[in-house]
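#random but structural
TW: two for the price of one
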Amino acid sequence: QVQLVESGGGLVQDGGSLRLSCAASGRTFSSYNMGWFRRAPGKEREFVAAISWSGDNTHYRASVKGRFTISRDNAKNTVYLQMNSLNPEDTAVYYCAAPRRPYGSVWVFDYWGQGTQVTVSS
């Protein structure tokens, strides 16, 4: 059973930065794509960023491109989301996500962490 534990959320001012971490356990981390999603109050969960199992490919939603960077450290079984130039619209609970199948060629996610709150004040 895969386990995903996020950390690094908090309160930050408009224009500030945060780095989220997601520690994965329960299987061979380096074989799986990883992703980040978020859910703002009153809104549906939305995709934020994803990284391939090899780390060679990344994908971002348009509104965070150029501000957020997803990366992974397979030796630490951890995926990161570096968030810069944060604005109040980025306020949400951020979730780490992983797929059921390894070596995926498409961005499909089946498992979710418990989430970490990010609040950006204006």
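TW: number two ↓
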Amino acid sequence: VQLQASGGGLVQAGDSLRLSCTTSKRTGSNNAMGWFRQAPGKERDFVAAIDWRGGSAIYADSVKGRFTISRDNVGSTVYLQMDSLKPEDTAVYLCAVSLRSRASAARSEYRYWGQGTQVTVSS
């Protein structure tokens, strides 16, 4: 299974970006999907996750109220709408498919990972 993330870029503080992540097949349709991010020299941190139906989502405190995760009806594409971006949001953003159907912040529950897309927010 391959995941392809896209939508990253260089923006200014306060701007918005929308990330997309598409799976190579409908593997993710019965599984929760999530977004993580990793800044240089730091660990990979949880950002947001959505359950297999797209009806329940969870967020890291640092992005709550600014980011919104969603998925398409087929279930193979997940999106991350990022508003009011801050310089501290700068990182490589990676999408992942969970082993479970419910959303989780635990990195260990994610089996398939994409290569990531760079998001850089200038002040």
